[in-house]
Amino acid sequence: MAPFLATVGAIVMLVLSALACGGDPAEPTAPSPPHVQPSTPTAAGTHRAVPPASRRAVRIVFVDVGQGDAILVRSGAREMLVDGGADGAAAAVIAAARGAGIADLDLVVTSHMHADHIGATDELVRFYRPERALIAGGCDGALRRAFKVARTHVRQARRGDTFTLGRVKVKVLSPADCAGEANEESLVLLLEVAGRRLLLTGDLTGPNEAAVGEICSRGPPIYLLKVAHHGSRHSTASGFLAAVAPAFAIVCVGPNPYGHPTRETIGRLTVAGACTYSTQHNGTIALTIGASGATTWRFARSSKALARASREKGGAGG
Questions:
Q1: How many CB atoms are closer than 10 A to CB 221?
Q2: Which residue in 66, 101, 130, 156 is deepest, having the highest Cβ count within 10 Å?
Q3: Can you give the pLDDT at residue 51?
Q4: Into how many domains does the chain fold?
Q5: Is residue 104 part of a domain?
Q6: First and final CA of the chain: distance in angstroms?
Q7: pLDDT tens digits for range 254-293
Q8: CA 162 to chain centre
Q9: Per residue in 101-117, pLDDT tens?
Q10: Considering the domain boundaries, does residue 234 fall inside one?
């Protein structure tokens, strides 16, 4: 816990109000660490009191777990984990959850069953004992056993499913069915809160990526895109980006032998007009969305974007 608190003490808070992506974010002259109350997980189905000021805010945390995905969502007293990172990532996820005021989990979502997304999920399930889980396809043996021990109700998700998490409306955009290609059949979530739309894509690629883009093109532009497959050149196609038109993008990535994120993908994001951050460059990234839609960003390390947009877009406060 001590290293985490030290990191939190160095956090840079960035309030994005009418920000254009063409310039570096300005850092406050005297940043102060957020107040973090020590907490321990409660029994499944129970929730600790949420401070009144936080009840209407939604927080989304992209945890720095190295080469892997782990995303926390808190809306009032309701909490969700999307993927749990690779083996060894549980401590980082638990520390980030505590920093976000998360003491237990209502729902665990697994985008697909690759080790860099679910390696630590079984440990986190045993720790938090979530009430429910959504999976895209078959279930890894270790994770299946953890769900059984935790008495978690597991459900296979499909395109068109919807649910709410506090003030967050969630819709499953993919997959329509599962034929065995894990990345292409990643479970994709569209989150809507206070007029903002956020897209969590797992390792989505191929025809399903195009289908998700077509669905998203029918509504307002995506405020935040979680870039698929850690910035692989095989995902995040130009046509997809034209359809979703993200203002901001986050790549969940760490040291790896694959060249992620690739220059091709970062280039496509830049041309599409997205300000792009990564957990490797910026550390754990937390976005808070207030009831009015106003946003606050926090970065555990640098607040400087990995890549700036090549064209000016409406900012976080607009």
A1: 16
A2: 130
A3: 52
A4: 1
A5: yes
A6: 37
A7: 999 999 999 999 999 999 999 999 999 999 999 999 999 9
A8: 18
A9: 999 999 999 999 999 99
A10: yes
Query: What count of other Cβ atoms lies within 10 Å of the Cβ of residue 220?
Result: 11
What CATH number did the domain enclosing 180 receive? Answer: 3.60.15.10
Alpha helices of 129-219 — where are they, by DSSP H?
Answer: 141-150, 207-216
CA distance 123 to 15: 34
Nearest-angstrom CA–CA distance, 201 and 154: 20
- Which phi-psi region, left, alpha or beta, contains residue 229 (left: φ > 0; alpha: ψ -120 to 50)? left
| Secondary structure of residue 75 in the 3-state scheme | strand
**Is residue 36 situated within a structural domain?**
no
Q: Is the dihedral of CA 226, 193, 34, 80 positive or negative?
A: negative
- Residue 95 included in any domain: yes
Query: Exposure of 213 by Cβ count < 10 A (0-12 exposed, 13-18 middle, 19+ buried)?
Result: buried
Encoded tokens for 241: 């980006």
pTM for this model (two decimals):
0.83
